[in-house]
Design a protein that fits this description.
With 416 residues, the chain is α+β, with helices and mostly antiparallel strands. It has helices at residues 10-17, 36-45, 53-56, 81-89, 119-129, 138-157, 165-170, 172-181, 189-194, 199-215, 221-227, 242-258, 260-272, 275-283, 287-298, 330-333, 368-385; strands at 48-50, 75-78, 94-95, 162-164, 229-231, 237-239, 305-309, 313-315, 318-320, 325-328, 390-391, 400-401, 407-408, 412-414. A hairpin with a 5-residue loop joins strand 12 and strand 13. The radius of gyration is 21 Å and the shape is globular. The two termini are 24 Å apart. The relative contact order is 0.19.
Length: 416
């Protein structure tokens, strides 16, 4: 792949991925304040509070996200590391879905998928794709899709001396990586991104690829799925049906194209707002891993996910009734001063500890190693190819905005 025109229409990318201009009000996109001081105050008063994270934070809008709105259920929110970690670990008390997953007859969508499964069913289906996202498989992703995409995007702006990294780099990498792994042509990659709220449209794009891979497998993720076998409760083994494959596709395409680009932008913004850190990483690339891990601790792009309470339980001093929704504010947990010193500081030199940025328990993010690889390859390439990379002094510096989906606004840079 060479040349931006062979990759993505940048004006369309700007329309789909512009955090400041293309506001998603339904998940708090208009929220520009820093929520962490409020979360600190809530956590100091109690580990768990009655109410949703946004309402407790003073946001009056009726926001939608994972576990929302469910107006007929009581809502609680956890803010401490200990409470959030405990909820993730106890999958029996805190289920990942309110309803059973029905892949054959249920409504297609990212939540009618492995994301919402529990117990044995979740383990069976996750085991089918887990090997493709394991650390040893990262090289396959890098060599097949990530590396070529990163360098083709940089090729397009390298001679200009300036760029806006969110649109011209960050947004493209995850969407082209995950659609490429499904065999989706580059000219349809943004169709997938634009159709995330229209599952039937994505299935129209995926279905012919599934049929083609059943006839002749290739070296991609769809081929892994069409050859995968799952054993049901009766002990019968079968190849995945089209509906089961579509379920995987809808989940992985939504997750793969919608989060890593924002986390990549947050990491770049954090480094470039402290030029001495960027210089240190440029000089010693072994620091990049710590810079990325600190980024996902300090400002995870999705700071909340939810669980459904399966039985009455006393949980960190609060009585949670069966049927309630518990919102895990992992953003607050990742800045708990009981676990990290000076938690509000972005400090790649701190001792690394596990965070909840990729979730926890049996549902820990299956794509976390892929996300790290995308960020690592992209930032290394920027530092290799763009001398004196810095924020554009004549432009507004990036800000982190949004509530349930947070990310850096435009990242204008100069180099050379």
């Amino acid at each position: 792949m060479t040349g931006t025109k062979q990759l993505l229409d940048l004006e369309r990318v700007r329309r789909l991925f512009d955090l400041a201009g293309n506001v998603q009000s339904w998940n708090g996109g208009r929220f520009h304040a820093d929520p962490y001081p409020v979360w600190h105050g809530l956590r100091e008063r109690a580990a768990v509070h009655e109410g949703t994270v946004h309402a407790l934070s003073g946001v009056d809008d009726d926001l939608m996200f994972h576990g929302l709105p469910y107006a007929d259920r009581p809502h609680f929110s956890a803010f401490s590391w200990a409470a959030c970690d405990a909820a993730y670990r106890d999958a029996e008390t805190f289920a990942s879905s309110a309803e059973a997953v029905d892949l054959e007859d249920g409504e297609p969508g990212p939540t009618n998928s492995m994301l919402s499964m529990g117990g044995v069913q979740h383990r069976r289906y996750r085991a089918l794709v887990q090997p493709s996202f394991s650390p040893p498989k990262v090289r396959w992703w890098v060599e097949s899709w990530i590396e070529s995409t990163v360098h083709a995007m940089i090729d397009a702006f390298e001679r200009k001396g300036r760029a806006e990294l969110n649109v011209e780099l960050c947004a493209a990498i995850p969407v082209l990586t995950i659609t490429g792994s499904f065999g989706v042509p580059v000219d349809q990659a943004l169709d997938v991104r634009e159709s995330l709220s229209q599952p039937d449209r994505i299935i129209e794009i995926i279905a012919p690829i599934v049929a083609a891979r059943r006839a002749q497998p290739a070296d991609d993720l769809i081929s892994v799925l069409v050859q995968a076998e799952v054993t049901d409760e009766e002990g019968t083994t079968h190849r995945l049906t089209d509906a089961e494959i579509h379920s995987f596709a809808l989940l992985l395409l939504a997750a793969g194209s919608g989060t890593t680009w924002k986390q990549m932008g947050i990491t770049l913004a954090a480094l470039m707002r402290k030029p001495e850190l960027l210089d240190a990483v440029r000089a010693d690339r072994s620091l990049l891993r710590a810079a990325i891990e600190e980024s996902v601790r300090w400002a995870p792009t999705d700071p909340m996910f939810s669980r459904w309470v399966t039985e009455d339980v006393d949980f960190f001093g609060t009585r949670l009734p069966k049927g309630a929704v518990l919102h895990i504010c992992l953003g607050a947990a990742n800045r708990d001063p009981e676990r990290w010193e000076d938690p509000d500081e972005y400090d790649p030199y701190r001792s690394m500890k596990p965070t909840l940025a990729f979730g926890g328990g049996p549902h820990v993010c299956i794509g976390q190693h892929l996300a790290r690889a995308e960020m690592t390859v992209a930032i290394n390439a920027l530092l290799d190819r763009l001398p004196n990379l810095r924020l554009d002094p004549d432009a507004e510096p990036p800000r982190i905005i949004g509530f349930y989906e947070r990310g850096a606004t435009a990242i204008p840079v100069r180099f050379g």
